Every structure is written in structure tokens, then in C-alpha cells.
Amino acid sequence: MRGTHRDIHLRSAFVGGVVAALAVMTLPAVAAEVGDALRLGQTNTVAAPTVLKGPVGSANLRVVNTNPGGSPLSLFAEPGNPPLKVNSNTKVAKLNADRVDGLSPNQMLRVAHAATNNVDEAIFGGGSSADVLTVTVDAPRPGFIVMNAMVDGFGFGTVFDSYACRLTVDDVFVTGTLIASQVSSSGGEHTLNTEENCSTTGVQAVTSGTHTVDFEVLARESVSLSRASMWALYVPFDGQGKKP
């Protein structure tokens, strides 16, 4: 017996539903953004953090790149965001930092030093001068040069012998570093040590480049010089190259 129009419609609907169900069962699953398994060799997009947690005796995750020119791990962050966060202050062996507060190692502190146990020089007054010690400092960027120097002087005269010391950077006198000292080789009411040092310190703002720091002695009367030492320390400005 031939079916009615209604029977034919029901059978068609039933067959269509079965075919659709079978098609869904046989198609590959489409990756969801959250909760899906990690897809290797593809870009995985997520909208929530992924946590790898477990009581493992060694590392929970190990990434090995066998390509001689490749890197096991790359971290990219949006501008202004740190590429990595940690919760420990413990030092990590063999982990080298190339920058500290935006500065590479060759942009940080540098020091130059010079010293002698015997200057072996006498200044015979009349306003004469001599360079006792000289150092050079390389400044990779604008910053300060902090300086300190001292020298021992011996008097020749019968009362007082006066002399002064000062610092210069690139042959320019550093303000505030001119210091006077007096020595005497005789006794009397105003007895001073026959040996008296002259020490001074100063700070000078500099541009990038190589700078020469001189420690000079100037004498009104005759003075013999002995031990001397000096150091100059380069200190960079802040991360934007501005004075603090």
C-alpha cells in the first residue's frame, strides 16, 4: 500500500536526523579557546590562564630545541609589560642578565685609579704648578664623574710653606676642589707638621666619551711632594639620560 503524504514526510525527517547525527559523530572536533587540548605545530588561542601543576621531583616542564640555531623558549610581551614574572629571590645559576634598569653592563659604573709612594717632585714656589696624577674615564653615556685625590707635601722654609691642590676634568677646573695646605720645617709658636697632606674631592657632569682627570698641585713657596693617590668614578644618569 502506498503511504500517505504524511508518512513520507515523517520518514524523510527521520532519515535526515540520523544522517545529521552520523555526520556530527564522524567530523573532527573543532578546538575551543578554553579547555581544549594543546595543539602542537599550531597557534593556540586561549582566554584564560593555563596552569601546569604537580609534585614532580624535577622541572614540571622541559623544552628542548635540537636545532643548533634555535632557542628553546621565546617570551613576548606588550610594550610596557614584563615578559616574565617570578615569586622567588633565589639566584638562578647560569642565568645572565644583560640589562639592569635598562642599562647594559658597559653603561654602568666605571672606576679609574692611580697612586704612587713617591711623586719625586718639588715645586719651587712662585705660583708654579705640576700634574701629580692623571687618569682617564670612559663614559658610554652622559653622567657624573666623582673624584677624590690626596698628596703629602713637605716644607722647605723656616716658617710656613703653603701649597694647594685641585682637580680638573678635560683641563677645566672642577669648582669647589681647590684646597690649600701649609707645612713648616721649623719649630716655634705656630708649629705645624713638617708633613701635611692636601686632599680634595669633586663631582663633574660629563657627556659621553673619554675624559681626562688631572690632580694638580700649585705652590706659593717651595714644597716637596711624596705619596699621592686618586680615583675617579663614572656614574650614569637615570634611564632617560637625565640628571637625577
Structure characterization notes:
With 244 residues, the protein is mainly β. The protein has a domain at 110-236: Jelly Rolls (Sandwich). It contains one helix and ten strands; from the N terminus they run αββββββββββ. The strands form two sheets. Strands 1, 2, 4, 8 and 10 form a five-stranded antiparallel beta sheet that branches. Strands 3, 5, 6, 7 and 9 form a five-stranded antiparallel beta sheet that branches. β5 and β6 (172-173) form a beta hairpin. The longest helix is centred in the first third of the chain and has 22 residues, at 5-26. The radius of gyration is 39 Å and the shape is rod-shaped.
Give me a quick take on this structure:
With 244 residues, the chain is mostly beta strands. Helices cover 9% and strands 37% of the residues. The protein starts with a helix and ends in an 8-residue tail after the last strand.
Q: Averaging pLDDT over every residue, what do you get?
A: 77
**Beta-strand fraction estimate:** 35-45%
Largest sheet: 5 strands, antiparallel
Distance between the termini: 101 Å
What do we call the CATH topology of the domain at 110-236?
Answer: Jelly Rolls
* Bulk shape: rod-shaped
* Unreliable stretches: 8-32, 187-191
Q: Using the coordinates above, name the CATH class of the domain at 110-236.
A: Mainly Beta
User: Per CATH, which architecture of the domain at 110-236?
Assistant: Sandwich
Helix content: under 10%
Number of helices: 1
Total number of strands: 10
Reading the helices and strands in chain order gives: HEEEEEEEEEE
What is the structural class? mainly beta
How would you describe the oligomerization state of the chains in this entry? single chain
Rg calc: 39 Å
